[in-house]
Write a structure and sequence with these properties.
By secondary structure, the chain is an alpha/beta fold. Helix content is 51%, strand content 9%. Helix 1 packs antiparallel against helix 3 (46-56). It binds adenosine-5'-diphosphate (ADP) and magnesium ion. Magnesium ion binds next to helix 3.
Length: 337
């Protein structure tokens, strides 16, 4: 059991109080077979947590049932199986996922996508441990622990009538809410290290690149962070990963960050120069400060060069302009050195 707990800490990376609390919950839940409901945005680690709960004291198989991937009339047969000849194309009897999970854990991912008729059938399995394959006249048995996950607000779905209240109560015995990555940024450095170690090699990030990754909001959560690290490793040319290796969404974020910074700096500078020139207006703050566009552009270029330590190719990339345009502007503003 201890080895499995160590394993949980090994697969579930994060230092934040929230992540540590989740690890404690996994530890408790793993020792019993109660249902669990995992809540959180996509990419926050719901499947990782479900597997970790199962692996604390593994019994039987872990079967993932992705409700968002099953569509149409075949959904019922995917879940409950069918007998030979049950419908056109049912050439052989087939076991469904519910039966495959017997004795183990069934992880119902995106359970909010399950249509109402199948919700009723699932409830019956949970209560009676019984179900009927499509086209069969006899019931079969399956007994499993259920872990369900959703990024929807199931309580609201219940109010709307799109999710069965009785099934909701059955699933929501214990719930674990996984915070979005933007609310637990302390986890970012250790997650990056984890993903870098996993790809092998001896990679590390420049402090500037790390700063950009920490300041980003990660709408795709840990999955997006993992993809970003993989992208940086794939495009880089040495063991040190730079801002220039960031994928385009992060580059855009960097440009936005820099332009916000520049706008703020430009406003502050302009305010200062007005005082320097002895503006005696009684209400200086009510007059909007206008900074000439050319001046903003000049400062943006200087800042980009400063930030890339003079690397013009990367500076041009950050500024969103071609290299030749940058050279022309350097000449124009007499910044060429
Ligand atoms: N705490 C974590 N530590 C390490 N990797 C994680 C963690 N949480 C998520 N991941 C990784 O992020 C990706 C998305 O996780 P997943 O469990 O599929 O999210 P969800 O089911 O919420 O969409 C996976 O590749 C997973 O390995
Ligand atoms: Mg998932």
């Amino acid at each position: 059991m201890l080895a499995n707990l160590e394993e949980t800490r090994h697969v579930l990376i994060g230092e934040s109080p929230r992540t540590r609390q989740v690890i404690r919950m996994i530890e408790k839940l793993g020792k019993c077979r109660w249902p669990a409901l995992l809540l959180g945005e996509t990419g926050t680690g719901k499947e990782v947590v479900a597997r970790a709960i199962h692996n604390i004291n593994p019994q039987g198989p872990f079967v993932t049932i992705d409700c968002s991937a099953m569509v149409g009339p075949l959904m019922e047969s995917e879940l409950f199986g069918h007998v030979k000849g049950a419908f056109t194309g049912a050439a052989m009897t087939k076991i469904g996922l519910i039966e495959a999970a017997n004795g183990g854990t069934a992880f119902f991912d995106e359970i909010g996508e399950l249509p109402l008729d199948l919700q009723a059938k699932l409830l019956r399995v949970l209560q009676e441990k019984e179900f009927r394959p499509v086209g069969s006249l006899t019931s079969r048995r399956s007994d499993f622990r259920i872990i369900a996950a959703t990024n929807r607000d199931l309580a609201k779905e219940v109010e709307k009538g799109t999710f069965r209240r009785d099934l909701y109560f059955r699933l929501n015995v214990i719930n674990i809410r996984l915070s979005p990555l933007r609310e637990r940024k302390e986890d970012i450095p250790s997650l990056i290290n984890h993903f870098l170690t996993r790809v092998g090699g001896n990679y590390s990030l420049t402090s500037e690149a790390l700063e950009v990754l920490i300041s980003y909001d990660w709408p795709g959560n840990i999955r997006e962070l993992e993809n970003c690290v993989q992208h940086m490793v794939a495009v880089n040319s040495g063991p040190l990963l730079h801002v220039a290796d960031l994928p385009s969404n992060l580059q855009n974020h960097l440009i936005q960050k820099k332009s916000n910074y520049l706008m703020a700096a430009a406003g502050a500078d302009a305010g200062m120069s007005r005082q320097d020139f002895g503006d005696l207006s009684t209400e200086p703050s009510s007059v909007p400060t206008i900074v000439p566009l050319a001046e903003l552009e000049r400062r943006a270029i200087l800042n980009a060069l400063d930030c890339t330590k003079g690397d013009r190719a990367v500076a041009a990339h950050l500024l969103g302009i071609g290299r030749t345009t940058l050279y022309r502007k350097l000449k124009e503003y007499e910044l060429a050195c």
